[in-house]
Design a protein that fits this description.
Blueprint: E1 4-6, H1 8-13, E2 20-23, H2 27-32, E3 39-40, H3 46-58, H4 61-84, E4 93-96, H5 102-114, E5 119-121, H6 124-142, E6 144-149, H7 156-165, E7 169-171, H8 173-177, H9 195-208, E8 214-218, E9 223-224, E10 227-228, H10 231-238, E11 242-246, H11 249-259, H12 261-265, H13 267-274, H14 278-281, H15 283-294, H16 298-321, E12 329-332, H17 338-349, H18 354-357
Parallel strand pairs: 1-5, 2-3, 2-4, 4-5, 6-8, 6-11, 7-8, 11-12
Antiparallel strand pairs: 9-10
Helix pairs in contact: 3-4, 6-9, 6-10, 7-17, 11-16, 13-15
Length: 358
Amino acid sequence: MTVQLIDAAQAIARLDAFDTIIDARSESEFEEDRLPGALNWPSLSDAQRHQVGTLYKQVSPFEAKKLGAALVAANIARHIEREVLDKPKGWQPLLYCWRGGKRSGSLALVLDQIGFRVHLVEGGYKAFRAQVLAQLPLLAARVSLRVVCGPTGSGKTRLLQALSARGAQVLDLEALAQHRSSVLGLVPGERQPSQKEFDTRVWDRLRRFDPSRPVFVESESKKVGNVAVPEALIVAMRASPCLHLDLPREERVALLMEDYDWFVRDPEFFCSRLAALTELRGKAVVGGWQERVRAGRVREVVDELLAQHYDPMYAASIARNFSQWPQARTLPARDRSPESMDEVAVALLAPSAAPAGI
């Protein structure tokens, strides 16, 4: 048998057909971004790459190559013992590394000699990344977006979840970014993906959508925490029809108390996040909010944040950036409950609602 070289475009087109996608790069390279569903089988670990690189510079390329070969061979043996011994003869893996194919090529050769039908991405991850960046604008232009708008705490994410549960196509950018989007949106204990990984997550969602059906997305700004929404997607969102989710003010406050419950449990964390608003709201205002948070008056502070900070900023931003906002269909929600959001989703997806809302 012979290892089959395929370019990145072919690999993407057949991505779901392979039994296993194997990333032969180091742990840190894999952590930054990878092909969807890939497993990490490092030919050289981060520490080993550093060891070989140091030997290359301080002693000689020849000595470094000998050490590298020994380490790669040992790692491949461990991967095979751990992952391959139970694989049937018809198992078809897709392999890649960074660019040149040396790290993935060694593993591919061994797997091919065993008798598996092995495919190797020509150009590696670098070629895949180029394809993602090239395809993102095309995919963003292909989908028919419906933008769920509404001020902070109106339940936009909850509505997206209800729509998804009802079988609608949903692009939840905050879930992909692992961030609640606002200055206060950092979720304790969660790591945001790198920009490259976020791009790949968005690309992977977009490529799976049926272009004949609408895709519901929240009215995000250009950045969700530390990652930027792909420019082509932002442009498409801002030109798309809008839906106005309307939730009573007291329900919005209660929703935020539920969804950001760590602010109630950890007042000092809340105060540290509020400090980010000092430049916009001034030391006196932010200091007053922090004092009341420490005194247990969190609900009061949340209500004022909506009235004095979030609502005015959102109103200005939505009117400035979303061209179809003036024609938005209003979606009244009686309360923040899952049942209420499901009612809104059902009404929105009803065939009779299609001409006006979908």
